[in-house]
């Protein structure tokens, strides 16, 4: 089904010739393939529409996947949680399963934009935008998520740790592929997660720093931890040095403080009028890693001494 695009957006002129609404994933992929890279997927449109208005995106066709079946579910699959490519931030934040078994993600999704934006913006779109401080990307990195990407040639699975290639760049070809699902392991009884966000105000503001942590407790020790950070590099990333440092160590404030110090070695934030100085954000990395580990361990039933 094709619609007149100008009539969908307050009669403002946008440089798009066609707005297509496929009835199936196969049809959507065929539409992308047939336009030779000049088509883009749109779901919530909270990234695509601003890019079109600012002329940052040069495409002639939009393919609306918001009505595709089987892409709006959040469900348990054994020990895993699977989130469909059409799931919105509001749905993820309100999901009892996400709140119970991936609380860092529920918290991150609850921070995105405003209620209006969260009701239409999708987690898949948040990932595909490739921004270094995306509120869904960072907790999903800490949760060791992987994404399924579909094209006319078939499907492939990409670990999220390999998905982000540069500022605004990902392993997905936006003119030919669609992110159909996100999968990660649900938290076990001895695991906890946390998401921390530093910003000038509580809504509609880019974060100065975000940190997501997943921790596994073993009595009074830290069996393992996953620490994800942004925007202190061109892409959101896992702080492997700090993760390796805490593994197997006692859950003490000394351990967590040193983990924060270790985490700054690979951080390279730039000075920014919007996000603060390099020195400030580097210091806050130390604070957030310590606080994130403390909160995640507490959820795992381990008190930091």
Low-pLDDT runs: none
What is the element string, with H for helices and E for strands?
EEHEHEEEHHHHHHEEEEEEEEEHHH
CATH architecture of the largest domain: 2-Layer Sandwich
Any idea how many domains? Answer: 3
The tally of helices reads: 11
CATH topology of the largest domain: Uridine Diphospho-n-acetylenolpyruvylglucosamine Reductase, domain 3
Query: Which class of the largest domain in CATH terms?
Result: Alpha Beta
Shape: globular
Query: How would you classify the helix and strand content by structural class?
Result: alpha+beta
Mean of all residue-level pLDDT scores? 91
**C-alpha end-to-end distance:** 61 Å
* Helical fraction: 25-40%
- What is the strand tally? 15
Beta content comes to 25-35%
Spatial strand sequence of the major β-sheet: 5-6-11-7-8
Q: How many strands, which pairing sense, and closed or not: the largest β-sheet?
A: 5 strands, antiparallel
Rg is 20 Å
Please explain how this structure is put together.
This protein is α+β, with helices and mostly antiparallel strands. The protein has 3 domains: about 1-65, Uridine Diphospho-n-acetylenolpyruvylglucosamine Reductase, domain 2, CATH 3.30.43.10; about 75-185, Uridine Diphospho-n-acetylenolpyruvylglucosamine Reductase, domain 3 (2-Layer Sandwich), CATH 3.30.465.10; about 190-300, 2-Layer Sandwich (Enolase-like, domain 1), CATH 3.30.390. About 30% of the residues lie in helices and about 25% in strands. The protein contains 11 helices and 15 strands. The protein has helices at about 25-35, 50-55, 90-95, 95-100, 105-110, 115-120, 125-130, 135-140, 240-245, 255-265, 280-300, and strands at about 1-5, 20, 40, 60-65, 75, 80-85, 145-150, 155-160, 165, 170, 180-185, 190-200, 210-220, 220-230, 235-240. It has a 5-stranded antiparallel sheet with strand order 5-6-11-7-8. Strands 1-2-4-3 form a 4-stranded mixed sheet, with helices on one face. Strand 13 (about 210-220) and strand 14 (about 220-230) form a beta hairpin. Helix 10 runs antiparallel to helix 11. It is globular and about 60 Å long. The termini are far apart. The mean pLDDT is about 90.
